[in-house]
Structures are given as C-alpha cells and as structure tokens.
C-alpha cells in the first residue's frame, strides 16, 4: 500500500502514450487514414479568432453536426470523426475529444515519417454546440483563375492572420499537403498533391516550385494538374508561388527539409493550442 501511488496512471488519469499507440495502430492498418486525421486535427483548431478569442481546438466542437456541416469540413463526419470513436469509448470521460483529435494529428504526422510535434493535454470538451463558431473561418480553396477571390494571397492572409500566423507559418503549415488527397466525394476536388501521399516530406514544396501546373479540363471545380495528370494543386496552393513573399519560403523549404520539419513542428504545435487554456506539456511519443 505504501507504493500504491505507483499504480496510478500519469497525467490526470489518462496514459497518453497508450492513446497515441491506439491511434498509431489505426494508421498502421490503413496509412491513408493518417492524412485525414491530420485534416481533422487542423480543422478542429483552425476556427480560432485571436480578436474574439473564440474557436480553436479547446472545446472539441468539431464533433458536433453543426460544425461538421461547415463547407470546409466536408467528409470529416463520415471519416475521421467516426474513426476516433472506438478510442474515445475505450478511455471514456477521462479523455476529451479535443485532446484526442489534436493528438491524432501529431501521431499521424510522426507515423507517416514527419517530426515529433510537441503536444500538450488538458483540453476540456464543450458540452453543447453553442460554442461552435460561424461557418467561414477555414480557408476556401475556391475555384477560379489566379487572382480570383477568394483563392488569392489576401484570402490566405486574412484567414491565417486571424488565427495569429504570419507568412512563414502559413507556408510551413501548407506543407501538410504533402499528405493525402482531395476526394470528389468530400471537397469535390480530386487527386493527391504528391506521388507519396502517406509520407510526410517536403515534396509538396519541390513539386510546387518545379512542375508546370496547368488548368485541368474537367467538369469539377477549377484545379491544377501536372503534365502526367496524376498530381494536383488547388488554386490556394498555387498562390504560394504567385506571391513573392510566400514564394521565398516555398523555395527555402523545397531545398531544406530539416528547416521545414522544424518550422512545421513549431507552427503545428501553435495551431493545436489555439483557443486553449491550462494545458500541460505531455510526453506522448
Ligand atoms: Fe488542406 N485541404 N487546405 N491543409 N488538407 C484538403 C485536404 C487536406 C485547403 C484545402 C483542402 C491546410 C491548408 C489548406 C490537409 C492539411 C492541411 C482538401 C481536400 C482541401 C480542399 C479534402 C477532401 O476532399 O478530402 C486549403 C484551401 C488550405 C489553405 O490554406 C493546412 C494548413 C493543413 C495542415 C496543417 C491534409 C492532410 C489533407 C488531406 C486529407 C485526406 O483525407 O487525405
């Protein structure tokens, strides 16, 4: 009995290494789930507004149908959100959805070969959808030729400055499009950005910088394709090489994967902590 405390789980009742292990198993079984979990994690956080100080990952509100109905979240209610339910059930009330969704993103990034992004626990779920922010806070990839609103540099800056990110952080975060793909059943866009969509690397930047991107001729929304017609870019991706202040970071990350990993790690950690209070730095890997 003198040493009974040793049996207590760490960090307020949840063994986050075990939770991370359960998330890893889901990704190992189907690596294509990893990128979608990264998207869940980012969308759960990307609603933050630094002026009104609402939104962000803190309340885990992306689980509510009201938030999943937002245009930018198309597909997540049928994929990443239900994929996390068994993990949530296993740990019960001691694990918040808000912690689970943010942890899923950093676990997926590491599992797919990326950096170990620092992560903190302690988010407390909102109990009802009243904390869901209005639709329109996530970036729109909207179709249109260069310069068309809202697929322009000003749109990206408006959205990301509202969260508190500068040009360099916007470009670093965008490198997550090394992972995954667009689904016609979700956003309406189609295809992967890189030939290795389950590997976290700096290929998004080198492809953006070196490939000749042309408008795809198809019935779907305006998007770009490469000459081989196997890769894609969104109008908002191309903005990163059309705007000189963005482009200098694209060129830098295309040449230097280590700097990309370091900068991405800092920016993603910041993203996952927007709109939170009282977090505790947590060893998860
Ligand atoms: Fe993204 N993203 N994203 N994205 N995104 C899509 C998919 C992924 C935009 C639009 C889209 C970030 C920034 C932007 C991921 C991570 C990040 C899709 C396809 C669209 C559209 C969704 C579908 O059809 O399934 C736009 C616009 C921006 C503007 O900045 C940032 C920042 C991140 C993370 C840090 C990942 C990962 C995916 C792949 C998801 C999957 O299911 O494969």
Can you characterise this structure?
- The chain has 285 residues and is mostly helical.
- The protein has two domains: 4-136 and 267-282, Orthogonal Bundle (Peroxidase, domain 1), CATH 1.10.520; 153-265, Peroxidase, domain 2 (Orthogonal Bundle), CATH 1.10.420.10.
- 42% of the residues lie in helices and 6% in strands.
- Strands 4-5-6 form a three-stranded antiparallel beta sheet. Strands 1-7 form a two-stranded antiparallel ribbon.
- Helix 8 (167-174) crosses helix 11 (244-255), helix 10 packs across helix 11 and helix 11 packs across helix 12 (257-272).
- The protein is globular.
- It binds ligand CCH.
- Ligand CCH binds at residues 35-36, 38-39, 42, 75, 139, 141, 156, 173-174, 176-177, 179-183, 186-187, 189, 234, 236.
Low-confidence stretches: 6-11
Helix-strand makeup class: mainly alpha
What summary fits the major beta sheet?
Answer: 3 strands, antiparallel
Pattern of helices and strands: HHHHHHEHHEEHEEEHHHE
* Major β-sheet strand ordering: 4-5-6
Average pLDDT for all residues: 93
Alpha-carbon distance between the two ends: 30 Å
The ligands found in this model are: ligand CCH
Task: Determine the number of helices (DSSP H or I, runs of at least 4 residues).
Answer: 12
Number of structural units classed as domains: 2
Beta-strand fraction estimate:
5-15%
Q: Report the strand count.
A: 7
